[in-house]
Design goal:
Layout: H1 11-16, H2 18-21, H3 25-59, H4 62-111, H5 114-119, H6 122-164, H7 166-174, H8 176-213, H9 215-220, H10 224-276, H11 282-293, H12 296-323, E1 345-352, E2 362-369, E3 374-378, H13 385-390, E4 400-405, E5 408-409, H14 415-421, E6 422-425, H15 436-441, H16 449-458, H17 484-496, E7 502-506, H18 514-528, E8 532-537, E9 548-553, E10 556-561, H19 563-569, H20 571-582, H21 586-590
Parallel strand pairs: 3-8, 3-9, 6-7, 7-8
Antiparallel strand pairs: 1-2, 1-4, 4-5, 9-10
Helix pairs in contact: 3-4, 3-6, 3-11, 4-6, 6-7, 6-8, 6-11, 6-12, 8-10, 8-12, 10-11, 10-12, 16-17
Length: 591
């Protein structure tokens, strides 16, 4: 997901961030007032110096010198105290805003449909929630404040310079023209470089994440040099983009620095001549030069402020690419919460096509699963079995037809309610970097230890009690500290722990040895009694759990019946079971 250049005005999405600023508006106003007061104190010092030079020094009055010196020191102390207050306040408010935005982005990612996550690289999403939000925080805490304060400082100082000596003051004011031209050219080039670098940073994050998760595969195939080369190419591209971006910033900073220095040189020469002619006092010249020196930092920082603002604009664009994506699987208006269910599941003329593709995966599916019945879905690899059962908990929505629970379209049932009624265990289990207990309950606080024990017994996962801290043992990211069979058993326990009315099992026993599989199947027989179940079968031995079997071929239901009936009368069913047992694809079976 990269920048295509067809965006609205760069400031548009950054301006939308203002809603996160509103809760901190009072704090931001106080912060700005403190910044203006600190700037006022710093501006007052050169004016005091003018009085010192034209007064006590010119008249050799030591007493007056001490008083004015003390006044200058007081202004310096006030400025230091105000800067401390400003920095501390702006950091706290910016971190609060960053946290709120991050929470909103994460919550929105959780609401977005599976199809969205299928199309996006996880590293790109990660970089938006981390690096991009850090860029916005820096802009809100420093860039925005400095932009306001430095602009006010520039205008105030130039006005004072014109008041002290208007010809020289106008000269300093005229130096803003080349600065404006330089900043305009710089911002146009920098925003493209900034967006390109942030996209490439997301690509590198994706590669690092994939390499970490696939480390066993990389090592097993001896592909470490290949992956290192691939990472090196991505990192080199990011490095070159960053160098180019740094070159732009360095060149612009040098130009921004050149303008005030040349202006200062002209002012020193012209000012000295004016003092010599008696049209300006020495104290006025000292004050003029001191005030003009105060403009060097606002001008030198202009490049950094523009760069920070450009990065914040592209970061806001990238964040709103996510926030502006509407969830497609949501509660319909008028959807209801269902607490009790008989578990009567029907697929009525269901058609399904994955988003972004044109070929239907499922066509005209008609199935009637009676309450308490277990229906096995059999078919060769790639025929659409997982797609079919994913429609039940609305991981995807049908493209045509409907799926019903007790006669009600599942799209008319509130998502939270539906997913409490439907338990799911997939062939490729996902475990989180948390304790065993937390992985099993996933926030379901009402779950008791007895319910956990029963679920673990059904899944033959009592091994968790032998772990160092039992249920409180952290199992690491993706559960890779466990074997594949152990991960599957924990995922199965998680599916049955809530006593769901409908159970969707996508071959959750594929990684188990024959002995453990037999024990799990025996326990599941008791669990499935009275529970409506959709069971995706890849092993012929698992079919025995089902009351009926549906044969799925080429995205359509080819036959429905008991295992023995289909085995006797449907050659394609026998072929599908044989193909699954041997790992043969659908194409081979059809030849």
């Amino acid at each position: 997901m990269h920048y295509d250049g067809h965006q609205r005005h760069p400031v548009h999405n950054l301006w939308r961030i203002r809603r996160y600023v509103r809760p901190y508006l009072t704090l931001m106003v106080l912060l700005a007032l403190a910044a203006f007061a600190a700037t006022g104190a710093s501006i007052a010092v050169p004016l005091v110096v003018q009085r010192v030079v034209d007064g006590p020094i010119a008249h050799r009055d030591p007493t007056g010198l001490w008083w004015l010196g003390a006044l200058a020191a007081a202004f310096g102390l006030v400025e230091a105290a105000l800067i401390f207050i400003r920095r501390w306040t702006q950091a706290a408010s910016a971190l609060g805003m960053e946290t709120t935005i991050r929470n909103d982005v994460y919550a929105h990612l959780q609401r977005l449909q599976i199809g969205f996550h299928d199309q996006w690289q996880s590293g790109q999403l990660l970089s938006r929630v981390t690096a991009d939000l850090s860029v916005i925080r820096r802009f809100l805490s420093f860039g925005l404040v400095f932009l306001i304060v430095n602009t006010a400082t520039y205008v105030t100082v130039v006005a004072l310079l014109i008041h002290l000596r208007w010809p020289l003051g106008l000269l300093v004011a005229a130096s803003a023209i080349p600065l404006f031209i330089l900043s305009r050219r710089f911002s146009q080039a920098y925003i493209a470089a900034s967006r390109r670098m942030q996209d490439e940073l997301g690509d590198v994050a994706t590669l690092v994440e994939e390499s970490a998760q696939g480390l066993r595969t990389i090592k097993a195939f001896g592909r470490r040099p290949f992956m290192a080369d691939r990472f090196g190419q991505e990192a080199r591209q990011l490095h070159d983009t960053a160098i180019g971006k740094g070159r732009l910033l360095a060149l612009s900073s040098a130009r921004f620095d050149l303008v005030p220095n040349l202006t200062l040189a002209v002012v020193l020469v012209a000012g000295a001549a004016t003092v010599a002619s008696g049209d300006m006092t020495l104290g006025q010249l000292v004050a003029f030069v001191s005030l003009q020196l105060m403009l060097i930092w606002p001008i030198e920082s202009l490049g950094w402020i523009i760069a920070n603002a450009q990065e914040a604009m592209t970061a806001a664009d990238r964040i709103y690419e996510v926030l502006d994506t509407p969830p497609s699987i949501v509660d319909r208006p008028g959807s209801v919460a269902v607490v009790e269910s008989r578990g009567h599941v029907r697929f009525e003329r269901v058609t399904f096509t994955y988003p972004g593709t044109g070929t239907p995966v499922l066509r005209h599916i008609d199935l009637d699963v009676r309450p308490g019945e277990t229906l096995a879905i059999v078919g060769t690899t790639g025929c659409g079995k997982t797609s079919l059962v994913s429609l039940m908990p609305r991981l995807y929505d049908v493209s045509g037809g409907r799926v019903t629970l007790d006669g009600r379209d599942v799209r008319d049932i509130q998502l939270g309610s539906l997913r409490r009624l439907v338990g799911v265990a997939f062939e490729d289990p996902t475990l989180f970097s948390m304790s065993v207990r937390e992985n099993l309950t996933l926030g379901r606080r009402e779950t008791t230890d007895d319910e956990i024990y029963e679920a673990l017994r059904v899944a033959q996962a009592e091994f968790v009690y032998d772990l160092p801290w039992g249920l409180d043992t952290r199992i690491g990211e993706q559960g890779l500290s466990l074997s594949g069979g152990q991960r599957q058993r924990l995922a199965l326990a998680r599916a049955v722990i809530g006593h769901p009315r409908v159970l969707v099992l996508d071959d959750p026993l594929s990684a188990l040895d024959v002995h453990t599989e037999a024990l799990v199947e025996e326990a599941l027989t008791r669990v499935l009694h009275g529970t409506t179940a959709l069971l995706v079968v890849h092993r012929p031995s698992t079919v025995a759990l089902a009351d009926r079997v549906a044969l799925l071929a080429d995205g359509e239901i080819a036959a429905v019946g008991t295992h023995s009936e289909l085995l006797e009368t449907v050659p394609a069913y026998r072929a599908a079971l044989s193909a699954e047992a041997l790992g043969i694809s659908d194409d081979v079976v059809s030849r």
